[in-house]
Amino acid sequence: MSKELPKPTTVEDLTEWVKCNDKVLPVGNRTKAPLTRDPDCSLVSLSDLSGMIEYEPSEFTFTAWAGSRVSEIEGELNQRGQYLPFDPVLLHAGATLGGTIASGLSGPGRFRFGGVRDFLIGIQWLDGQGRLIRGGGKVVKNAAGFDFPKFMVGSLGRYGILVEVTFKVFPKPMGTLTWGVPFSDHAAAMNAIADIASSRLEVDALDYRPDRCQLAIRLAGPSEVLPDLLGELRDRYPDGQRWDESEAHAYWNAVKEFQWSDFKKPTMVKVPMNLSSFLKLEGELLDNAACRVHLSVGGNIAWVAVDHASDLDWLSDLLLAQGLSGLVVSSGLAGSSDLGRDEVVSDQDGHLGVSSGVVEQWRIGHWPRSQMQQAVKAAMDPLSKFPGV
Amino acid sequence: MADLLEGLESIFPSDRLLCDPAYLAAFESDGLTAFRTKPLAVVIPETEEEVIAAVAWCHQNQVPFVARGSGTSLSGGSLPVANGIVIALNRLNRILKLDPHERIAVVQPGVVNQHVTNAAAPHGLYYAPDPSSQSICTIGGNVAFNSGGAHCLKYGMTSNHVIGCKAVLATGEVVEMGGPSLESVGPDFTGLFCGSEGLFGVALEVTLRLLPKPEQFHTVLVGYRSLQAAGDAVSAVIDSGLLPGALEIMDALSIEAAEAAVACGYPEGAAAVLIVELEGPRERLAHEIQCLEAVLAKTDSFAQRVAVDDADRLSIWRGRKSAFSAVGRLSPDFLVQDGVVPRKRLGEALVRIEQLAERSGMRIANVFHAGDGNLHPLIMFDGKEEGALHRAEQVAGELSRICIEMGGSITGEHGVGMEKRDFMPEMYDPLSMEMMAQVRSAMDPNWIANPGKMFPGNDAPALSTVGLHPLEKAGVISRE
In this structure, is residue A195 part of a structural domain? Predict the structure, then answer.
């Protein structure tokens, strides 16, 4: 039986719902479904707690409800010539601000100015006891108190329900331009990434497609300046070519929307990486016909797509051997319309959750555990209202 | 006392376990000289293992400890506790790894901030956070207090540049957070550790990201007849869509002080000067310089100086960076405040500060990172005058309240430490304070790591008279 999730429209309603349920997990629009497939939990969607609360372009900050769609917020920022420089992912699929924070995902633009962790400056969250807690603030510089906003980045909804979030934003560059460069082997490409990343050019994004041995270098800034900067890339990498606007847009958009692989329904895994780790791993990764890789953020993220969820065990072993961790962020995502809502079922008490038939792993490879993690989890969620980590 | 310290001597040889009051005096205070406390002992570890052993000993014996680097905290963050020990980390000063290919450095906590940039420079890289004390302050302290500097608007604070950390918690548990990648999965413990003011434990190894050194800088000094005009200029620059590396304002009093100290040649008769610095590849910079000139031309300025070369740029910055210490020439004592207001309310905040100065009869100089609304009022007084320190502290408290009232923060970069702990409950509601206390207890169940900082309610050590820090008098350090 498929049902719509509860969608509180006020903080009071959300609080009441949290108090009435034993085990809960917040979601937005479920664009990253594997992260919230826990059959023991009742799900609640924040998607109706949405909208801009405060936007001060001259302060470079905005505050919005956590359930706001990132695409809508970006639209508002765009009107004032501003943006979130970390290139939020799954924008068109319907990702929310809260989900973007909780999953800790950043796109290619993370390369230049930092990731979601570097732009989130304040939060208000509901803990398992239904108490509203604040962390950080609403000004771009603040060193008072523990940095809960950063902690919540990647917290996967397991420590509390984000309700209100404040971000720092930047002026949006007037233009972008992409230079695509083919390489003969991965090692040469990794060297090029290191060279460009240390260069005077301050490039905006630096992504690599190993199957094509192709590096994409994105410049951003005043439109009239970009051709001059491109001149240097042309000198350095004469085999490259400038992509036209639509080609460049399609490429970067596919990265952000997880649609860059040729699999019909890929399962997508985020693997934090660096250049040397990639070179150690690429042989085995790329030899597997059921696996595709896109290296993003100057080699700091490997997006690994596998054809079937059953290939995750193989990938997990491979990552484990290298001491790397993987977060399974989406599965069977054919396009923006398939949000996996059909997995939602009602239990005998009427609580809505996830059918136990679709549970799958979301954490693969090396996930070290420590007493510290357990102690902090117990401190922030003493009633174990949220699932464990 | 020997009984109290039993067991420590098996970890540290006598020349690195200091109990002699004469030695302890050197550690009794940090950059906030208003507070002084002698610890029971100071230990000077030379290895990670010794730090871990010292913390484990403190845990077993319930003895409080304070980790300390160069002691430059301006919030009393490394103030010792009378019944505890100080763990002096200056000898853990090795850069363990500098990888230009991955653009990261792994350093021990006692490494001096500037030394990271020095080591990275041959590779065209640098470490971005630049607190004014960067020539002596250490990375461990920067991490603990999430230090800032003049370039935070564009590049963020220390926590934006720390991607991994190995630490020993107050329980003796050794944990590893983050790693060599800019990205991670799971909750960001590295981010939580940064700025935790030493209340969780002691950093042992810190992984820093390095940035390519900007190709060129364009530094402009602009003189204004009023603070308001300088403040308006900041808004105009921000609204133009430019993202300067630095935007700084100094008022007449601080200009006077800087001029007397370093003869920086700022425009005569200026009520305020604005320093704007752009940076980046020369092609982009050429374009941005034109934009900046157009913006500044419309502001109500009366003088402008563009740095013609690196030496000239440094001379402009010398005035700014020396301003705080230089105020010592105008007044025997002063308190440095650190607060943040929304940028659009800077003008209003300055008027309030002026009124406060008049009401209290104290002179207040102003230097601030205008780009991010970070104020640094300097409250001048004579410590020999009875009650003057107390009055100065009251004024400082008023300033903190103004920042809270305006929706800002009680600290932008100095941290809460000992100085601002009583204002935390005014900035955060009781539930949020309670959550912080719970997390602190998770990391340090006995509250032995740097007790008395950030949270109100502990016994404050006796106030003593203030004055310039001895190193400040010698011109070795300066305050942000």
Answer: yes
Q: What is the mean pLDDT of residues B52-65?
A: 97
Residues B258 and B341 in one domain: yes
CA dist B135 → A123, B138, B139, B195, B446 (Å): 34, 9, 11, 20, 35
**Judgement on whether residues B84 and B198 belong to the same structural domain of the protein:** no
What secondary structure does DSSP assign to A201-267, as a single string? T--SEEEEETTTTEEEEEEEE-TTTHHHHHHHHHHH-TT-EEPPHHHHHHHHHHHHTT--SS-SS-E
In this structure, what CATH number is given to the domain that contains residue A217? 3.30.70.920
Cβ separation A148–B192 shorter than 8 A: yes
Q: Helix or strand or coil: residue B48?
A: helix
- Domain residues for the domain of B231 are 216-405
The last residue of a domain, from among B159, B177, B212: B212
User: Is A146 within 8 Å of chain B by CB?
Assistant: yes
Asked if B191's CB is within 8 angstroms of A151's CB, the reply is yes
* Count of structural domains within chain A: 1
Q: Domain check: are B64 and B100 in the same one?
A: no
A212 lies in which domain range? Answer: 175-243
Optimal mutation site among A147, A196, A320, interface B, most CBs of chain B within 10 A: A147
Above 80 in pLDDT, residue A349? no
Inter-chain contact A389–B146, Cβ cutoff 8 Å?
no
| Mean pLDDT calculated for residue range B27-56 | 94
Structure-block tokens of residue B129? 């956070």
Does A219 reside within a domain?
yes
Phi–psi pair at A54, nearest 5 degrees: -150, 130
Residue B4 binned pLDDT confidence (cut-offs 50, 70, 90): confident
Chain A residue with minimal CA distance to B124?
A198
* A134 strand-pairing partners: A124
d(CA A217, CA A192): 10
For residue B48 the two structure tokens come to 């990670």
Residue B452 lies in a domain: no
Structure tokens at B285: 């910079």
Predicted confidence band of residue A38 (pLDDT cuts 50, 70, 90): confident
A207 occurs within a structural domain: yes
A127 touches chain B (CB under 8 A): yes
Q: Is residue B286 part of a domain?
A: yes
Cβ of A141 and B410 within 8 Å?
Answer: no
Verify that B77 and B155 share a domain, yes or no.
no
A209 domain-assigned: yes
Please give, rounded to a whole number of angstroms, the shortest distance from the CA of A223 to a CA of chain B: 10
Q: Which of B354, B370, B405 is the last residue of a domain?
A: B405
Q: Residue B476 pLDDT > 50, yes or no?
A: no
pLDDT-based confidence at residue A4 (cuts at 50, 70, 90): confident
Residue of B nearest to A192 (CA): B101
Residue B255 and residue B311 share a domain: yes
- The answer to whether the Cβ–Cβ distance between A134 and B429 falls below 8 Å is yes
**In this predicted complex, what is the ipTM?**
0.94
How distant is the Cα of A228 from the closest Cα of chain B, in angstroms? 7
**A163-177, A261-275, B322-336, B378-392: least confidently modelled range:** B322-336
Compute the nearest-CA separation of B393 from chain A (Å).
Answer: 19
Residue in B closest to A171 by C-alpha: B241
The string of pLDDT tens digits covering residues B237-295 is: 999 999 999 999 999 999 999 998 888 899 999 999 999 999 999 999 999 999 999 99
